């Protein structure tokens, strides 16, 4: 278990001073002094775990001239934001649209990356027709299982041997760790997860298969997820690991919670991945820390205070937060496969519109112009400090 280090203690003060000194030196690199090239995260973390980002259509189509060189230089694994979600790839009965998905996979192959598929079974961004018959009535269990099977066989089968890992089931749990009452659960029953993994394994026996969810750092949800994982493994389900989404706040969850979460799932023999990492620096607009995309809140001047840029003290707070997180990841690298940031630059982050639309957020390692932030160098420092 990781213990938090008090900066007032000699060891804590030394660690803080080392980080500050590193950031001062890194500032010169960030501003291009002496023509210094930007260090590479994927090289720094080589031998620890893969490090990656989610990519959108403009990026894998080569239209984002800011993000493309960052992706190529910094990351060795990618996830698709939307290109492989059901509504994108299978919009109507009998109709598949693989144009964007094909470009996404080709993009990952171009840069020799570990390519993620996200996601096969989710209650959101799945068209209503999936759960209904021709009269608009709920499908039977058998009919919905057949639909799930056909979709997974077609999508996973198309990229067999090319997509390396799949988020098979996404966000099946409530905040208290109980099963979400999604159409998948209501119609099929709690074995819909077992079936989804079986179908995915049949379609590509060589692919890694994961369960993916948010807020697993919270004790109740973590316990529910751990119990679900134990049941899946007891049933012989071919599950490789779990994705901790990692949509966190500037002030929590803390390092102890992060470490406990990784250790809880690693103890079950699962590979642990941080699958959608970002750090929300803006004031809370809801009482919940959930990343449920159905949540909304009105934007106010109080909830959107940094429209003219992130103040230096907040830049340093963000850097410290990322350092705290990656210190935990590095200490648990033997249990981890990858850490993926949910986006490349602050400009395209989903947190600019969640849970309030039109906010100006700063959750990632590169700013809106593609320049590395102090948080980037803090993450780099944790890799070099581990050697």
Automatic annotation (TrEMBL):
GO terms for biological process: xylan catabolic process. The active site is at 276 (nucleophile). Residues 35-382 form the GH10 domain. Keywords: Carbohydrate metabolism, Glycosidase, Hydrolase, Polysaccharide degradation, Xylan degradation. Its EC number is 3.2.1.8. It catalyses: Endohydrolysis of (1->4)-beta-D-xylosidic linkages in xylans. InterPro entries: GH, GH10, GH10_AS, GH10_dom. It is an enzyme of class 3 (hydrolase). GO terms for molecular function: endo-1,4-beta-xylanase activity. Gene3D superfamilies: Glycosidases. Belongs to the glycosyl hydrolase 10 (cellulase F) family. This is Beta-xylanase.
